UniProtKB/TrEMBL annotation:
The keyword Nucleus does not apply. SUPFAM superfamilies: Glyceraldehyde-3-phosphate dehydrogenase-like, C-terminal domain (SSF55347), NAD(P)-binding Rossmann-fold domains (SSF51735). This is Gfo/Idh/MocA family oxidoreductase. GO terms for cellular component: cytoplasm. It comes from Virgibacillus salarius.
């Protein structure tokens, strides 16, 4: 089949991961990149032999060779960038969240539905082999009916100072939209149910200055789902041992824990510190295979003209719940999620 030509918009840490994965895959080409920093563009162009580089996303979309775009720009630009790509009849892979404003997302979904292009959303945990194994067990009745689900996402505390500096210059969307949207999606996916009510709390024990920019270094949400499952999520930026992502699902006939300890590999170290199991230190390490798998699935959907499992509606639901969590925290009360 003809080589599929893809442009990557945004070359932050995750954008660089997608660029490398696209470059290394057979049957597709990293044809173009767009990013504001020309120095980064030059390095990426040389490393991956990229034919075209741009400092403007709009300029990149004018390239007639492109078949698809991978959008890894700041979250607040996602919906606009989706619409612009569709206007050029391009297939789209977009990182989470799909957007930050519910009405804007709904309008964008209408545009997506008017086109016959593939739209794929970057909820990479659905492509992680451990989560897929857990999902299969649950769907096959391996633990009976789910009664409770708990999901953690805690970034390394070593990155906290960097995040504080970032938050002071550019809003991330908040802890719940920026991080918990992954847990929200996992909870919806594993339970096959929507979230109906949320109660959120949080604090800034490690970085009090985040309060000045309406951010949190630790947050929790208790949820009630429409199928009467209880869910608890924890999001934070203070894991001293590394990058901690963990999910526990308790059912009527058993329970599952995905990554109860964030182990780097199967190695055990015996030294002056005792018996040590090394931990994953950052998300590119923990979900390296999942990031590859989701791009492979995006390409497969284009080639086979099949709709991805992750849809624009999943993106909308994630944002709706995350915004309800933020509202609950701000107003210190239970909030019903409005769909």
């Amino acid at each position: 089949m003809e080589t599929l030509k893809i442009g990557v918009a945004g070359l932050g840490r995750l954008g660089l991961i997608h660029a490398e994965n696209i470059y290394n895959m057979k049957g597709i080409e990293l044809t173009a990149i767009s990013n504001l920093d020309e120095k980064i563009n030059k390095k990426v162009k040389e490393k991956y032999k990229v034919p075209y580089t741009y400092t403007s996303y709009e300029d990149m979309l004018e390239n007639p060779e492109l078949d698809a775009v991978c959008i890894v720009t700041p979250s607040g630009f996602h919906t606009e960038h989706i619409r612009l790509a569709l206007a050029k009849n391009l297939h789209i892979f977009c990182e989470k969240p799909i957007g930050l404003d519910v009405e804007d997302i709904k309008n964008t979904i209408k545009v997506i539905e008017k086109h016959d292009r593939i739209f794929h959303l970057g909820f990479m945990r659905r492509y992680d082999e451990d989560y897929l194994y857990a999902k299969e067990l649950i769907d096959n009745g391996g633990i009976g009916d789910i009664s409770l689900i708990r999901s953690y996402s805690i970034d390394p505390i070593q990155e906290l100072d960097s995040f504080v500096n970032f938050a002071k210059k550019s809003p991330s969307g908040g802890l719940f939209l920026d991080m918990s949207v992954h847990d929200i999606d996992v909870i919806r996916w594993l339970t096959n149910s929507e979230i109906s009510t949320v109660w959120a709390t949080g604090n800034n024990k490690a970085a009090p200055e985040l309060s000045e920019v309406n951010e949190l270094d630790m947050g929790t949400v208790t949820m009630k789902l429409e199928n009467n499952v209880t869910a608890l999520l924890v999001a934070g930026r203070t894991a001293s041992h590394g990058y901690h992502v963990e999910t526990e699902i308790i059912g009527t006939k058993g329970m599952i824990r995905v990554a109860a300890a964030p182990e780097k590999n199967k190695v055990t170290v015996f030294n002056e510190h005792g018996t040590v199991r090394p931990s994953s230190q950052h998300f590119p390490e923990r979900f390296a295979r999942a990031y590859e798998n989701e791009i492979k699935d995006f390409v497969r959907c284009i080639r086979e003209n099949k709709s991805p499992e992750v849809t624009s509606l999943d993106g909308l639901r994630g944002t709706e719940v995350a915004l309800a969590c933020q509202k609950s925290f701000n107003e210190n009360k239970l909030v019903d999620v409005k769909y």
